[in-house]
Amino acid sequence: MMALLPKLHLNRNTSRAIIFSPEELGGLVLPHFHTLQGTDKLKLFLGHLHLQDRTSQLIHINLGYIQLLTGIAGFFLNCDYAQFSWVEPGWVTSLWEFTSQSNITFSYPLLCRPSAPREYGKFLMDYFMNLKLSHKTLEILNHCRMYLKVITLSDIVTANGLSILPEVKLGCCRETRISTLQWPNQGRPAPSDWMLWKAHLDSLEQHGRLCTPLGLWVGASHQVWQHFIDVHTNRLYILDGDSATCFPTRSGPQYWFDVETGIPSRLIPTELLPATIIHQPRLMGSLASVVHSQNSLQNQPPRSQTSNVEKKISMMRYYRKILFLILSLHGL
User: Fold this and answer.
1) pLDDT at 31
2) Is the pTM of this model over 0.85?
3) Where are the alpha helices (DSSP H) in 102-165?
C-alpha cells in the first residue's frame, strides 16, 4: 500500500479510513487487497468443488490430509485458525485463515472424518488443545501422534480400555494394530519429544489406569486388529491375513496362554472380542496374559489379503528370474 498510493497520486500517509471508506462517506472506495485476495480464493475453491473436476479431486485430497494432520473431531475449516498456527502452511490453510477471520463456516459431507470408535474415546489433539499448551508443544505432540498413526484414545489403549499401552508412551508402533488410512511421512521425533509425549499421556492416567476408562465399541476403527479371544471356548486367535493361529487359554480373573502352544486354525469363530496380549518374557517366560473388550468391533476394516492366484503368479515371476540368472551365468 505504501508503494501503491504514490502511483495513484495520493499521499502514502493518507488515513486508511479515507482510502477504504465508501463513496457516500467521502472515501475512495479502494478495495482491501487482503479481502479481495481472500474472496478470489474462496470463489476458486467453491467453483472447483462445484465442477467436480480434476482440481476438485486435488482439493478433496488436501482437505483430507489437513483433517488428518489436525487430528480433531470437527471439520477443521469451521475451527479458529489462530489455534492451529502449528499446522503446515499451504494454499488451503491460507484460505482457512481468511474464512476463520471472516466467520465463514462450511458444510462438506463428502469428506470422511474419523470418529471416536469407543465410548469416552476422546480425540488426542482435542484433549491436548484443551490443556492450553503452547503452539510449539502442540506441534511436537502432533508429530509424535502422526508418527504412531493414531487419532483417538482408543487407538493407544489396551483392549479392555483401562490403561494406555506402555510401548506407545515410548514411541513404538504396535505392529498388531495397523492403520488403514494413508498417512503422510513423518520422521521419528527426537527423544526429548517422546518425553513430552509420555508426560502428557500420563496426565490421562492415575496409578497406571485411565481416569475415565473407555466403554463399548460404538463405531468403526481405522485400525485392523489381529488379536482376538473367543470367550465361549477360552481360545485366543491371532489373525494374519487369511491365516489364523489358535492358542488355548486358562480363564480366571485374567486369561493366560502359552506363546509356544499355538496351532494353525482353519475355522475362525464369528463372535470374537478384540484382545491385547501382555507378554513379559523375563518375568513370565512363555506365559502371557490377555485382556479383552466387552463387545466386538463395529465394522472391522478389511484385511489386506493376497489371493492364491496372486501368490502363484509372484512365485512364477520369482522362479523365472532365478532361471534367467542361471542361464545368463552359463552363457545360454
Assistant:
1) 77
2) no
3) 124-130, 135-148
